[in-house]
Amino acid sequence: MSKEIKLMETKQYDDEIDLYELIEILVRHKWSIVVTTILCTLLSLGGALYVRSKTPNYLMKSILIQQDTYGLKGVNKINIDTILLQDRNVERILEVEPIKAEYLENTPKEQQNMASQRKFLQDMLTISKNDKNPEEISIKTGIIADENSSKNVINTYIDILREQDNLADVIAKEKLLKSESLEKTKLEIENIQNEILDIFKKDSDLRALKPEEKMNYIASKYPDLNLRKSEQEKYYNTYVNELVKLDSLNDKLDIIKETTDIYFVKGQSKAKLILAVGIIMGLFLGVMVAFLKEFIDGYKRRYK
Question: Are 25 and 294 in contact (CB under 8 A)?
């Protein structure tokens, strides 16, 4: 019974991994580990540099769109989501020659159409709203050809947004209409005043009345005239107030405000991650090569 226990213990010890032996194997094949690690590191370095070279950099600009119709009819709603859906806007942005050349170079001739142009610009441009304040808009574009061309793309996009803003035109139109109505009202008030003067001249009963009683007399004796006078004065005051309100909107005509200049943003690449993974994989493969060589050497020794 004791012999069987000893045999089992001996077998158990044989199955256990000898840490010192593993270390000896790694030290014995250290150059294989070093060479494998260096090779993998160089390969990953090359991959990292390639990925880094292909990672686009960006230009960004922030704007603020504070739009209000101010109760006016016909004011366009500025919608950043529809800019690139309009063919004329796509064509206008592609008037930037280096960007157009990049599109033509990277798009097969048989695929060059409005749909591919739109997709090209949609991939190039990223328009985003601030979650906390939807009025804050960020315009980001990849540097496709050069920085100046990308700046032109951003500026063209903002120009298109500004052209959607017709508030100044609507205000000018409203001011013209209100001014014309005000002039007509003035003429009507003058006519009423002339009629009152004629009444003063012709109606002898007015001569015996005190000044404050004369208007009450006219109001009671000529109610239609008094009603016309009240209506026209009401219109006059309304038009004057509306013109004052329209004039006060002049300071609010700049709906699109540029809150930052165009600034450079470096693209985030995975170069560092690729290099780190390469080094780790190199060490792992180096250890595997060391154990494989040890296995082959042991196999050869057994069969000599």
Answer: yes
Residues 155 and 178 in one domain: no
Q: How many distinct structural domains can be found in the chain? A: 3
User: Is 156 found in the same domain as 9?
Assistant: no
Cα angle value 198/201/205 (rounded, 5°): 115
The first and second tokens of residue 254, run together, are 């700049």
| Average pLDDT of the segment spanning 156-164 | 92
Cα angle vertex 57, ends 54, 60, to 5°? 155
Provide the CATH number for the domain around residue 64.
Answer: 3.30.70
| One domain for residues 114 and 242 | no
CA dist., res. 64 & res. 160, Å (int):
15
Instruction: Report CA torsion sign: 138, 140, 146, 150.
Output: negative
HSE-CB for 271 with a 13 A CA cutoff: 15
Shared domain for 285 and 140, answered yes or no, is no
Name, of 71-75, 214-218, 236-240, 262-266, the range with top average pLDDT.
236-240
Which domain range does residue 7 map to? 2-53+270-302
Residue 18 sits at the vertex; the CA angle it makes with 16 and 20, to the nearest 5 degrees, is 170
Threshold 0.90, pTM exceeds: no
Give the DSSP letter of residue 235. Answer: H
